[in-house]
Amino acid sequence: MTKTGSKPPKDRSRGKILFAGVLFALALMGLWARAYYVQVVKGPEYAKMANRQYWASETVSGKRGEIFDRNGLLLAKSIATPSVYVRPNEIKDPWTVSQRLGSILGMSPKGLASKMGPKKRFVWVARKISDAQAEAIKAEMLPGVYLETENSRQYPQGHMAGQLLGFVNMDGHGIEGLEKSFNDLLLPSSTKYTVQKDAAGKRLSSLESGDRSSFNGQDLRLTLDSQVQLATEEALARSVIRAKGKSGMALVVEVPTGDILAWGHYPFFNPNAVKKIRGEWKNRMAVDIFEPGSTMKPIMVAAALQEKVCTPGKEYYCENGKWSVKGRRVKDTHKYENLTVSKIIRYSSNIGAAKIGLELGAAKLNRYLQDLGFGRRTGLPLPGESAGLLNPVSQWKDVELANISFGQGLAVTMLQLADAYLCIANDGVRLPLRLMHEADKPVQGTRVFDSNVAKMVMAMMEEVVQEDGTGTQARIEGVRVAGKTGTAQKASPTGGYGGDYVASFVAIFPADKPRYLVCMMVDEPKAGHYGGVLVAPEVRNIGVQLLNSSGMLAEPVDAMQMAKVSPDRFSAPVKRSEHISVDGEFMPDLQGATVREALEILVARGIVPSVKGQGVIIEKQKPLPGEKWPADKKCQLWLTGQPG
Predict the structure, then answer these.
(1) Which residue in 61, 98, 294, 549 is the catalytic one?
(2) What is one process in the GO biological process aspect for this record (predicted)?
């Protein structure tokens, strides 16, 4: 039987559909709300974040300008060097990062960790590291650790003219020498630009090399000749070492132009190793002053001749070596009686010079010293250049005038002394010394002495060398050489003069047609103190190499004895080679080549050879041809007179 009155089951499908629709609508509204929040409310902020992720602002700087000698040899350059820095806010585990960096860089992990404070956004870890260290850091892929390319200053020729060139600091700014004087010229410019990056953070665009070069600093070309510089530095080192001196300076000037060809200091200074050698970077040629001693006598005599106070043949009584001026004693090294002005210069008589100076008078002598530049800076672009010491003429009494006449009681720089002698060598016309190579710029000078006065003084200086004067060790066979010795006591800190000396020598090659002026000074020599004995021989050797290289010697001279080298492995037959093969790994055959040819090859590779013997042709060499280039940059050359 069928039951009656039962209710049919309810249909719930409609409610389920409605519930699902509501949930869907709520989800859709949530998505819309989220999209609104992301795109409208947070849109600008997220857009900035995206730009920071895919676009970055970078600073691009050019390279510091390069420095060359007059022949184009590179003396200073900048190279790309990696540096490492961190962004501490991106580092989650500073200790681990510090340990890994410390092991690569040889630094204390504890010290590195202390730098990585979470509030810091940028910290330099190490600047200008090696390429091997940079590659090791790259391989670690440490978060928050970055490499940056900087420019590092390098000096390919080592210590060559190191004090003159100076050096730069870690940021590439010149702080000594020409690097400082010409910092604004050499310094590169920089700019910021935007680059696009991919998801991995790699740049998708960069400046072309041509665009980067437009930010480079300007180059500098000096009047220095690397071959003359090499010869001068070697001769100066020999002179200081032989004299057991404290230090020394040497300057070579081209007479017709005033161009400085060599600027040498000893001990040497290598600007590549500033931290290792402290104090030797001082540019003493410009900043140190010394009493010139007897090298002042030709200058004083030139003033007296110009004023017609005396003539070369006028005689002065030299008091048998002892004389008193207002109670102050003046002495000579020998007992002279009557000496002409020429012989006063030849034998370097202090008494004779003092009498000429007293006859000339303080006002006139002071005027000529002023005209020659004493008491003022030369005007060369040198930081800290000294003006010397020349007291006002109102303070010159007879004693002071007598002392100044033979080179005491005033102080000069080597540059001032060379400038004055350049005037005499250049027929009485004072030329400005030049360090910047400007081949097309006309040379303009100011006449100080008449031509005949300059010639008379040159003739007296020639007697110093060619006759029985104090500079006979500067003679060169077949060449007329003019020169003047200088020996001056150094003032004592407690007053008066002590037991230390300055030994100097000035020479002009050749005397009849002046081409080169060479000045050399040795400070505090212990193996004697006379400039004619300690300094003149090496000034002469510089002159020989200058005249040889310029072709002004018809035949080589035999001033220096050939070095005695017994091992047969160092010997080889001399033969002239039309072409010198320069292999990238092995020493070329320099035997038979001229000194100039050999120096051009060696100096270009940063090698400053030691040259022994006399002549213009390479007879032997070490390392031998075919051996590897010396890692220590040492090379020995022996010279002979003629090619075989």
Answers:
(1) 294
(2) cell wall organization
β-partners of residue 640 are 617
Q: Which of 5-40 are b and which e, b meaning 16 or more Cβ less than 10 Å from the residue's Cβ?
A: eeeeeeeeeeeeeeeeeeeeeeeeeeeeeeeeeeee
Strands 220-221 and 74-86: unpaired
Angle, CA 424 vertex, CA 422 and CA 430 arms, to 5°? 60
What is d(CA 497, CA 8) in angstroms, rounded to the nearest whole number? 136
Q: What is the identity of the amino acid at 628?
A: K
Neighbouring C-beta atoms of residue 588, cutoff 10 Å: 19
Q: Which residues contact 582 (CB under 8 A, 6 or more apart)?
A: 588, 601
Mean pLDDT across 559-566: 34
**CB 157 within 8 Å of CB 606:** yes
Please indicate, yes or no, whether the overall pTM of this predicted structure exceeds 0.85.
no
Q: Which among 445, 397, 119 has a CA at the least distance from the CA of 258?
A: 445
- Residue 639 corresponds to which tokens in the numbers above? 């010279």
Average pLDDT over residues 130-136: 82
Mean pLDDT computed over 444-450: 95
Catalytic annotation present for 294: yes
Q: Which sign does the torsion angle of CA 88, 91, 96, 97 carry?
A: negative
Rounding to the nearest 10 degrees, give the CA dihedral for residues 408, 414, 420, 424: 110
- Count Cβ atoms below 10 Å from residue 360 Cβ, excluding itself: 22
- Helix residue spans in 209-283 (DSSP H): 209-213, 226-243
Q: What angle do CA 481, 482, 483 make, to 5 degrees?
A: 120
